[in-house]
What does this fold into?
Amino acid sequence: MDRHLVSSDLATSVAEIVSDMKHLEGPLLPILHAVQAAFGHIPNEAVPMIALGLNLSRAEVHGVVTFYHDYRSHPAGRRVLKLCRAEACQAMGSDRLGDRAKSRLGIDFHQTTADGAVTLEPVFCLGLCSTAPAAMLDGAVHGRLDAHGLDMLLAEVGA
Amino acid sequence: MTRIFIPRDAAALAVGADRVTARLAQEAAARGLDLTIVRTGSRGLHWLEPLVEVETSAGRMAYGPVTPADISPLLEAGWLLDTSEVVNHPLFLGPTEEIPFLRNQTRLTFARCGVIDPLSLDDYRAHGGLAGLTKAVAMPPEAIVEAVTLSGLRGRGGAGFPTGIKWKTVLDCPDARKYIVCNADEGDSGTFADRMIMEGDPFVVIEGMAIAGLATGATKGFVYIRSEYPHAIDTMTRAVGIARRAGMLGTSVLGQGSSFDIEIRTGAGAYVCGEETALLNSLEGKRGVVRAKPPLPAHKGLFGQPTVINNVISLASVPVILDKGPEHYRDFGMGRSRGTIPIQIAGNARRTGLYEVAFGLTLGEIVDTVAGGTATGRPVKAVQVGGPLGAYFPRALFDTPFDYEAFAAAGGLIGHAGITVFDDTADMLKQARFAMEFCAVESCGKCTPCRIGSTRGVEVVDRIGRGIEPEKNLALLTDLCNTMKFGSLCALGGFTPYPVMSAVTHFPDDFVAAPVVEAAE
It folds into this structure.
C-alpha cells in the first residue's frame, strides 16, 4: 500500500479536511474540491484516506475522481489558461485562437509547458457567450479576445 | 453626491469593467469628486459592456462600451454634472431604460438585474423583492402550488415540464424529509441567464427556493453551481449568508415559523450533471451518472427523498408570480408557453445579451431585428437554438415562433433559450462533427447509444467529410441518430441528433466533400 510513502503533512491535511466536512450531506465532492485546493491535484495517496474517512471503497472514490474533468491527477502549471471551445466562441473564431495558443506555447490542450509556467486547457462554456471568444486565466475572465488579446495573456504568463 | 453604476457581471468583467472602475475611482480621488460607485449585475446589453450608468435627475444615463481611457475625457466633458452637456459624447446612449433593446423587453424575472446592488437586501426590498415570499408565508402550501400551476410556468432548464405539477407531486409525498434542488449547472453554450441572475439578483433565486420549500414541505435546499462560474458561486454564497442573517432563511423563514435553509455546492466540470438525475448523483457524492426514470426525482430524488429539482430561472420566476398573481404572468405568451422567456443572444451577433420577452417572437425577429444580424456583418447562415443539443436553424425557418411546441414541430427545441448566431463562414459538417465529439467527451457512459453512438458518429461524419461512400454514410448517420434519439437514457445522447440532423437536413451542401486530393508525402 506504500503507506510509508505518505508524507505526514499530506496525511494530516487530508484527515483534517475529511473530519471538517464529513458531516455534510454528500460530502465527497466538497472534500475533493478542498483536497485539490490544498494540493493542486488529488494525490493518489489521498484516495484511500478519503475512502476510509467516508466508509467508501477506494474504487468508489477513484471512480468519482476520474469521472469529473476538474480533478487533476497531477499538479497544473503555475498558471492555467482555459480557452472556451464551445459553439458561441466557435462562431467568433475560437478555433483560430486555440491553434495560435497551441503553437505559441508549443503544447496541445491538456498539456503544460516544459518550464511549468502554464497549462492550456479547453473549457466548454464559461457563460461568456455574448462576449465571445472567451478565456479564463486562473480565476480572471477575458472576453472579445482577438489574436492581440491572446498574445497579451500569453505574455502575462511568460510565454 | 453622484452615483455611478458599473456592472460586476462576469461578462462585463471579461471586457474590463474592473479596470474601468479602478480608473474612475482613481480619477475621482485625484479630482476630489464626490461620487459613489455601485457595482451592479448586468442590464444584459452585453455588446455595450462595460456599460456605465450615471444617476441624474432625469434617471440613469448610459454610456458604453467604456474603456479606462474614456474616463478622463468623460469627466472633463462634465460627465457627473446633472446637465445634458455630454449628450454629444459618442459613448452617450441616453436614458438606459429608453435604449430600444431594453425598452422593448418585458422584464419580470430580470426586473432588478443590473439595476440594484446584488448583495444589498435593502436594495432588493426597495425594488419589490420579498413581496412574493411575504405572501407565500401566509398561504397554505396547496395555494402556493395552485398559483404556480395557474401561472403556466414551465421548466426553463429546457424540458418545459409544468413547474406546478412537479411541486404538487412533492407536496403530496408524506415523507418528513424533502429537498429543493436548484439546477445551476448551466453548461449549454450560448446560455448565460442563470449566471446573470445569480450574479445580478441572487436573492430572487433564494426567494424562489424558499417559496418552493414552503409549497412542498421541504426544509433544505441545494444550489448546484458549475465550477466554471466562480463569480456566481461567490455571489450566491455571500447572498445566502446575508439572507440567513436577515431571517429570510433559517429555522423561521420571515419569522413565520417555517424552516428552510440553503447550501451552495460546486460542480466539477461534468456537462452531464446538468441532467437532473446525474446532478442528484453528483450532489450525493457519486459519479454524475444518469438515473433511469421512474422513479421520478419528485418521488425519490436526492438521497432517495422527494425532491423538487428546478432550473435557476424557473425558481427565479416564482417570486413575481406570487407577488403579482398567476394571471399577470400567464397573460404573457402564446399557446401553452406562458409568461416570459429570457432569450440569450450569443456568438456572432451584432447585439448580444439577454432579452426577456413574452413567448411568441419569431426567430427571424429575434435574429434580424433584436440582434441586428451578425457582428461580422456577413449574412446569417445558421442559428443554433437551445445549446449544444439544439438544432441549427436556417433562414428558411426564421418564421418559427419562440414557443415550446412550435420549435418541437420545426424539429428543434427551445432548451434554455440560448441563440447562437453563425455567419456564412460556418462549416456545418464541422458543427455536426463537434456535436458528436462533445457528446462522446461528456457522455456519462451509462447507456450504449450515447456512449458508443457518439464515437461512431464522429467517425461517420469524418468519412462523409472525406468523401468516402457519402450516400451510404449519410444513411448510416441518419440511422445512428435515430438509435441515439430513441434509445438514449437522457437528453445528452437523445438530443445530440438535433444539431447533427438539422445540419445535414438544412445545409446539405456542407456535407458534399470536396474532391479528395491524396497528399503526396
